[in-house]
Amino acid sequence: MQKPISLKDRLAAWLPQLVLTPSILAVFVGVYLFIAWTAVISFSSSKMLPRYDFVGLEQYIRLWSTPRWITAVENLFLFTVLFLAITIAVGLFMAILLDQKVRAEGVLRAVYLYPMALSFIVTGTAWKWILNPSLGIQKVVNDLGWHSFVFDWITRPEFAIYCVVIAAVWQSTGFAMAIFLAGLRGIDNSIIKAAQIEGASLTRIYLSIIVPMLRPAFLSVIVLLSYISIKSFDLVLALTNAGPGSATEMPSTFMFSATFRRNQMGVGAASAMMMLMTVAAIIIPYLYSELKEDRNGH
Amino acid sequence: MTHFTKLLLATALALPMTARAEGVVEGIHHWVSESEVGALKVLTDNLATKGFTWQDSAVGGLSGANATQALRTRLAAGNPPATMQFLGYEGVEWEKEGALRSLNDLYAKNGWEAAIAPAILPFVKADDTYFAVPINMHRQNWLWVNKGLFDKYGIAEPKSWDDLIAAGKKLKENGVTAFALSDESWQILEVFEAILTDQNGTDFYKKAVMDLDPAALSGPEMLKAFDTLREVRGLVDDGFTGRDWAVATGMVASGQAAMQIMGDWAKGEFLAKGLKPGVDFLCFPTPAAVPNFKFVIDTFGTFNIDDANITAGQDAWVETVMDPENQKNFNMIKGSIPARIDVPVDGFDDCAKRSFADRDAAVKAGTMVGGLTEGFAAQPQFAGVFFDVVGQFFVTDMSSQEAVDMLVSGIDNAR
Hints:
CATH class of chain A: Mainly Alpha
CATH topology of chain A: MetI-like fold
Number of helices of chain B: 17
Structural class of chain B: alpha/beta
Order of helices and strands of chain B: HEHEHEHHEEEEHHEHHHHEHEEHHEHEHH
Structural class of chain A: mainly alpha
Shape of chain B: globular
Oligomer: heterodimer
Mean pLDDT of chain B: 90
Mean pLDDT of chain A: 88
Low-confidence stretches of chain B: 10-19
Low-confidence stretches of chain A: none
Radius of gyration of chain B: 22 Å
Shape of chain A: flat
CATH topology of the largest domain in chain B: D-Maltodextrin-Binding Protein, domain 2
């Protein structure tokens, strides 16, 4: 005969669902419902206010024939590639140096991590002044006596995007370093010892053993930094305000100005959908590979 | 009325009005600087004498874009404010949505139609319905001059853009920065639209900028205006990146630069430094063969709210805004001139007096037009194209023809 199920047991069985329901609902409404709403708007003729008609791909066609949007997409790719490559290279290098059991490591780590604690608005404003030729680096060097020194990238449309890269790298390198450092600390010393006994050089140990073992750290850094670069809105706004002459426009700044300042809600929604698809194109293969490995028992 | 607003209004009416106290008028605006707050106090103090309390909902930042966002949120939540400050086409859009009260009775009762310039009617009236009242009028096309520098190099008031460029070159030869300017596209557009209107007259401006006529947009007048803007570029210093307009005004005030083209909000910066118009600095209209007057106004609209207390408060507020004495006192502090054209000029400074006189002349000659940069000539999606093109033209070595082509295709794309 089956034992009657007590109330307590029943509650225990339902508890996970009860606890999770509010957050699932919140995510569903706050994220997925609004994604769906944005998709609807992107197919409508909405201008200042939402309008629920259907105009097909008109807003997407309009978007892709706007030169500013093309600039924004190019900038996003240029920025993401440079930002990721430089931040990872410098961050890894600093982590390896710090891993050599240096003195005052705690202090140094804090110093390198500190920029991460600043908001991008502060970073952007500070670098705006540092990079301004008549206030910052160029003026200091000129005043020191090197009069022909020129560093005016921020005033030149073709170089201004590199200024954004410089400021973003400055802000995020310490963060990448911290993750790599944690990864390095997790590597078993006996493996390195064994390699040394086999007569491998230090460079070889790093390139062939340690860096490949840092794969999880690399993945975390790449995902987190790509996400910073796609949402890089505040930094651009504070540093260059998308100028000079929309040379540092990013998809996020484009979306904001179209939707909220230029009464082009349809175009703004279309650009938001393009950003979503870009993120999805990066994240879905990553999630897929990670989940597959989980199933294989890693 | 669109589906969306019907929904908004339905929720607005369905919600209980418990939060609204009697005798309170709530207004959203974006006046947060010292002179703006002081000027607003003139109005709210007067409102208090009529037995109504002003509930201040100031939302500063982004030239009013933040306040607009706040308003949309409030309407979506079914809780519109009693009144809202509008810039440019904002009020017109809300009127189209049926969200605003008709002020026709008050206009008729007080004879306000005769008190305002016809050129601003599109921003307070749509299809025979008055939906807003104007409080002030800024003039956008001013040339601010450091008097000491002009005297030193013997430069008189420029009468044409050729004069102005020649004066700039003379200053540059003597090592003086002629123009204080920035790479911010709105500051460049202020200069460009002044050139365009001054060289070709307001009829051309109306055709090209307000009606977006393709032939006018791609014509030789446009090319020439870009050529002139290129000459201005040569008269600006190297450190112009990211320069705030007020910093640029400060350069003229301190003698680091000789001239700035900016609306008359710049006057407040000179006055705050203790400088006197006519003594330390000069204000000239931007040089045109036929003088024109580019206006920028702030208006207040009132929202449909089904509550007699609120409606009474809105009436009191609208009458406060349109009171000639209030308009005078408000604008003496704010630096603009009254939107009413029948307020006497006494007590205003020399620059404001010139504004009054030029406005009267412009109303008579029909050369009063809305400023493009501040949103009074073209809808934001078209103005945005002008911003992009002049901004890029100014910082690159794009040719005038390329700029015109970009402008034409950009406007077509935004239509």
